Amino acid sequence: MTDVHALSGAYAIDALDDAERAQFEQHLALCGECRAEVAGLQEAGAELAATTMATPSAALRARVLADVAQVRPLPPVVAPPAGVTDLAAHRSRRRRPLLLAAAAAAVVAAVGVGAVVTQPWADEPAVVQALPDPTEAVLAASDAETHATDLPEVEGSATATVVRSRELGQAVIMTQNMPVLPRSEVYQLWLRVDGDMKPAGLMTATDSTVLLEGDATDAEAIGVTVEPAGGSPRPTTQPVAYVPLETV
């Protein structure tokens, strides 16, 4: 016979049949613990429902279903003798709200890169829409302006391309074939605003795509210098890359 306490999760998501729902609602009127558990589950479900959902691709669906097939099933549940309290089942029942809360937190934490939410009562997994990547947002902006330049002062065929969106107030720099620096040095990015060079982040790879830190709306140019590892508050060398931007 199903432990009526174990029906709280299914009740919260409206997954019970009529007979089970009637049975559980009679129990719910007398059990404060189950009422609190149902309220918590319904609140968590409402928060998850507020996220933007999208249909997963066929490849993603196939991968999720393949992963599910690798999950080891739980052992069969053996009912304890009459009159004996099944402590494991009782603890598991009380832990379920905590586990569901942790799962909800994991979904929120994963939103930055996209996440798959699998629901045992649903036919297909749902995908929580990832927040736009700031770098990609600049590159795809409708007002994006592109400024490219070769770097003759740098050995080889190094290039630097800057894409700026005034509407977003941000800029991205893309470099190719920059010389490899020793571990004691780093490429530092700068925004030139009102004639002043302001630190805008570090670049460690020779071929990089980096979102500059700071407001680039009125920047006059983007500079790259070689600085000691960790960066400097002010440029200590001449720029190895200097990309003028259009000003209004």
UniProtKB/TrEMBL annotation:
Membrane topology: Single-pass membrane protein
Keywords: Cell membrane, Membrane, Transcription, Transcription regulation, Transmembrane, Transmembrane helix
Membrane-traversing stretches: 98-117
Keyword check for Transcription: yes
Subcellular localization, as worded in the UniProt entry: Cell membrane; Membrane
InterPro entries per UniProt: Anti-sigma-K/W_factor (IPR051474), Anti_sigma_zinc_sf (IPR041916), RskA_C (IPR018764), Znf_put (IPR027383)
Domain Anti-sigma K factor RskA C-terminal: residue ranges: 100-240
Putative zinc-finger domain segment(s): 3-35
Stored Gene3D superfamilies: Anti-sigma factor, zinc-finger domain (1.10.10.1320)
Domain of life: Bacteria
Name of the protein in question: Regulator of SigK
Gene: rskA
